[in-house]
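Recall from the previous lesson that a structure prediction takes nothing but the amino acid sequence as input. Here we apply that procedure to Pyruvate, phosphate dikinase from Micromonospora zamorensis. The sequence below is the only information supplied.
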Amino acid sequence: HKYVYDFSEGNKDLKDLLGGKGANLAEMTNLGLPVPPGFTITTEACKAYLATGQQPDGLAGQIEAHLESLERAMGKRLGDPQDPLLVSVRSGAKFSMPGMMETVLNVGLNDQSVVGLSAQAGGNDRFAWDSYRRLIQMFGKTVCEVPGEEFEHALDEAKSAKGTHNDLDLDADDLRGLVDAYKKIFLKHTGREFPQQPREQLDLAIRAVFESWNAERAILYRRQERIPTDLGTAVNVVTMVFGNLGPDSGTGVAFTRDPASGAQGIYGDYLANAQGEDVVAGIRNTVPLQELEQLDKTSYDQLLGIMARLEEHYKDLCDIEFTIERGKLWMLQTRVGKRTAAAAFVIAGQLVDEGLIDLDEALHRVNGAQLAQLMFPRFQLDHEFQPVAKGIGASPGAASGTVVFTSARAVEMAAEGKSVILVRRETNPDDLNGMIAAQGILTSRGGKTSHAAVVARGMGKTCVSGADEIEVNVPAKRFTVAGQTVNEGDVVSIDGTTGKVYLGEVPVMPSEVVQYFEGSLDPEHIDNALVRAVHRIMTHADGKRRLAVRTNADTGADAARARRFGAEGIGLCRTEHMFLGDRRELVERLILARAPGEREAALEALLPLQRADFEEIFREMDGLPVTVRLIDPPLHEFLPPLEQLAVNVAVAQERGEDVAKEEALLAAVRRMHEENPMLGLRGVRLGLVIPGLFAMQVRAIAEAAVACARGGGVAKPEIMVPLVGAVQELETVRAEAEKIIAEVVGDSGVEVLIGTMIEVPRAALTAGQIAEAAEFFSFGTNDLTQMGWGFSRDDVEGAFFWRYLELGIFGISPFESIDRDGVGRLVRIAAEEGRAARPGLKLGVCGEHGGDPDSVHFFHEVGLDYVSCSPFRVPVARLEAGRAVV
Ligand code: PEP
Ligand code: MG
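The prediction returns the following tokens.
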């Protein structure tokens, strides 16, 4: 079994096996770029190790062989006392998990080789001892779980003994002393001396990287990002190059385009005389990459050349890490870079213009989740709000919330339902919980590539980083800015696009992309790269997609908005929403009716109101199909709750008031009480039990359609019966409805379809029979999931889904994204058997899944005609329906 690959043996398509970092290092090596030599231990080795706790057979020997050939290539031996080869041991999973797993640098240093390193570095003692103390620190913390603060504390002590705040002021002797202190700390916590054998260091470091796959923060990150738990990480063993050898050395990160806006240009940060970790941690402030041109023009030009080459090769935005060791440039990493949602669209458009990709590929490169993000509202700023600070717009969005300073507090307050802004000097992987809980993240240090920025972008959370006018005092729970003090509990607003920070709560307005969808921004006539890119890609998606997209809407206003967003009809109009407000009383009368006359009177009063509702909706959806669902929920939902009513009656009786009416109501509520109302008297069952109810609704629909037609419009009503489980139910409703329709429409030319929801498993399994009585099916995947899994849709998410997610029983709630294997199978069966019984049967979906990207792909695959979703999801569904085709 081959567990170890030299960089020259891999390529970018081997990410499963070599991880992202290893695969791309191999790719760069094969492109002839200056990559420090090294090798990659596969994810398979990691998985085998994690399964058994032992290195798999053969791994040790393969590492030995690759190490030997590395030593031959470099003409140095690992940890050689005179001229040591040093290596870094780096994690690298298939999907990037920034800062979540471990890295150990400078492996191969010990009490002897530190002297050799110094000699090789031209007698640079300071550098050698600094490298050694970094090794003990990283190795101790990562491999042996020595508390990191102890090392930091010792470092602080060394600095204060020297009377400085700056690491760079510590000289070789100070650092030698620090190494001694670190070794003592190591001994105290591990009960053993710091290992002096280079190969032992290497093996332990490799093991620690394997194990870091299961570190708590890594598990949490994967859950958040929906990264499968069983991939494992690869381990890269890479020849060390040093950015901290003096002023002609340094390290940096760069993007080939702006990862926030997509704009072309040079985006990166550089830090002279430093190691890579210093940049990512945002500990010292970096300078813009452009300044490297002054410092080292040769390396700068070479770097720009390599960046252009990488973009052309990957045909995408790349991010890179590099180090300059005494004027020689080394590439330490590249990958197709993370980007904001806006940048994803803009860059896809640019790459089409540049001829690097076609529009189908552009459609691949963006997704519905990104589009949804671009539809977030923005701050509405007037003179009243002046920014108090400006940092870097690290992850876009507009967030207001209560200031908190610790991850724990963020979690606590979010649990109370508060919107919070986590304010930190800089974040580190331990802040992950707080970042998840927060609405937004504000840091006073760190650039676009700092931990806060990278993680927030990944999570789609608003983040402003490096707002250095802000003085954060975590212990005192406050920050000061522009002469003002902001305490925990105060409200601030942050704009992740502009990087501006405001005190107080700033009101919000629709985003540009929403304005475009609303029709108030014309992409042909405005100079806005994002809107133009969205327009272009959406147009392409619309041209490609086979699925139609409808909306779920119950009001004229929603219908109109959804239509502007591109809805091609209504897939679900829930009529029960029309029974609320001041109509509740009429519904009450209907429910309480004792004699047929009373019931008819109540229905007659409701009829014109319903008709007016439908007329408005048909008008807004003129020419497009409108699926109106007959009333679905149990009627007692329209009555006051039992307990409250009982108390009211008791109190009124006590006071000697006349309670005859309330008593009647109470009796009705008692009569209608159900232990399990979701499986009780609702949907078609109501229509069969309460005379005249469905008839009234059918009449209202038909009359509204006729009124529309008379007014010159085109109404296309589709009457939908909910909760059908047997064809006989549908046939009964249908017979009555057809009579009314025939009577109402006469020769008006109006055509009314009658169909059913498929939301009870039995309906899916007898779809062939049901199709005989239905002109269309609409899958109610909310109830189909509820009844398919037996999960109460109103209770389970908060009650126990967290545990199911934790155990990996499913990776995402089946109410959010369709369960392809189970509920999806019911959909597939019903679609096939329904169409077999009635060719041309119209099929759609109107559960929440209709607006979920992954589910849209599934509905495309099973051959539905349309999806229907809430107005705001309509553009997302259009985009994903297009993506499902290309
Ligand atoms: C469904 O069950 O999926 C559906 C659309 O109906 P409702 O959500 O109203 O029960
Ligand atoms: Mg339903």
